[in-house]
Write a structure and sequence with these properties.
about 375 residues, alpha+beta, Beta-Lactamase, 2 domains, 5-stranded antiparallel beta sheet, 12 helices, elongated
Length: about 375
């Protein structure tokens, strides 16, 4: 069985995670409240996914991620940020493969579960075997405002150094390159091994003018970056038992190729709960029409002797829309609307919907 390690100095978060995963049997959950404890567990267990807070007392989570690059480079990593931290956004998708996912405190069980399943899927598809890209590391150094020298090794063939003061990149050099050129080159390296040491005293004046995030081809999802910024509002609690049940069971769907989102609607097409990974998706545009279409098709099929419909699928150049329904008398008239990309694994999605819909419904009974 896969083992997942969650590292968080707030023990109440670890207890919430243990309670949330108690009824799930997809993997074994291990927890640690310090980097030292985490390394001890890593040395004794084969971990499939690591989720770590970066703001840890004493040795911080960035040191743990650096340790992973040296000892377990192909293990997917989930980075847990504080609610005051800006969230990095990479302009290229491969920026999400190494440090695969960022979640913020206070995080919900459903969000953490989704991130873990994404990590397991990346591992199973072999997308994490090349290791972490250097550009994934750079925003984390800025967030933690590290003052350090970072040594970067690439496949034991190339090496270089990056020099930071309070999270600002001062200088860099690697083999025949120096300054900005060296930093840009190292930012493209994948499968790096990272080691931190003290910043040498001679590095005080910045030699690199380009912003670190520009070098990483990343931006902040927040408008400002300040340790004194006002905390953002805590995530809203699930509006209903239905939404809570959806969040608890949605993780496996997020790992399926092409998944864009899922909504639970009633017979009138009103959205009762939803999970969206593509922010361009607006289920309200299609939910009512598709619900009406299903009702009409079901009536026609009954008249023709084919019994009541339990699903509907529409293929368009923009993607695949699938609707599956529940038994009106046994479970209530819920309709599950799923959107996938055109090349998504629709068959596997249908099989998984058959499994998780009863679990969601059992969570509201």
């Amino acid at each position: 069985m896969d083992k997942v390690l969650i590292v968080d100095y707030e023990k109440k978060n670890l207890e919430k995670a243990r309670q949330g995963f108690k009824d799930m049997h997809h993997f074994e959950l291990l927890t640690a409240s310090s980097v030292k404890m985490a390394i001890e567990l890593l040395e004794k267990n084969r971990i499939s996914v690591l989720a770590t807070d970066v703001h840890m007392p004493g040795t911080d989570g960035l040191e743990l991620i650096a340790y992973m690059t040296r000892k377990f480079p192909s293990t997917p990593i989930i980075v847990i940020l504080d609610e005051n931290d800006p969230k990095p956004w990479f302009s290229e998708r491969d920026g999400h493969v190494g440090v695969l996912y960022y979640i913020e405190k206070p995080y919900s069980f459903g969000r953490l579960a989704s991130a873990i399943f994404v990590g397991l899927n990346l591992r199973d598809e072999g997308l994490s075997h090349k290791g972490i890209m250097m550009k994934n590391f750079l925003p984390l150094v800025v967030i933690l405002r590290r003052t350090c020298r970072m040594e970067v090794m690439l496949n034991s063939k190339k090496n270089g150094f990056l020099y930071f003061k309070d999270g600002k990149l001062l200088d860099a050099h690697s083999e025949f390159l120096t300054g900005e050129a060296a930093a840009k080159e190292m930012a493209t390296w994948q499968g790096v091994q990272v080691t931190f040491s003290d910043l040498p005293p001679e590095y005080g004046k910045p030699m690199i003018k380009m912003d670190t995030m520009t070098i990483a081809k990343a931006t902040w999802k927040t408008d400002t970056f300040s340790k004194t910024a006002k905390p953002s509002a805590a995530p809203a609690k699930p509006a209903s038992k239905l939404e809570a049940a959806l969040l608890k069971n949605i993780g496996i769907l997020r790992t399926i190729k092409g998944y864009r989102g899922l909504a639970i609607v009633n017979a009138a097409g009103n959205i009762l709960a939803s999970d969206i990974v593509d922010q361009a998706v607006d289920f309200s545009l299609a939910a009512e029409a598709l619900s009406d279409m299903y009702s009409h098709c079901s009536k026609v099929m009954l008249k023709k002797g084919f019994k009541r419909c339990n699903g509907l699928a529409l293929h368009t150049p923009e993607g695949l829309l699938m609707m599956r329904t529940t038994d009106l008398y046994a479970s209530g008239n819920y309709r599950f609307l799923c959107l996938m990309t055109e090349d998504g694994n629709g068959f596997f999605m249908q099989m998984q919907l058959k499994i998780i819909i009863p679990k969601i419904l059992s969570g509201i009974s």
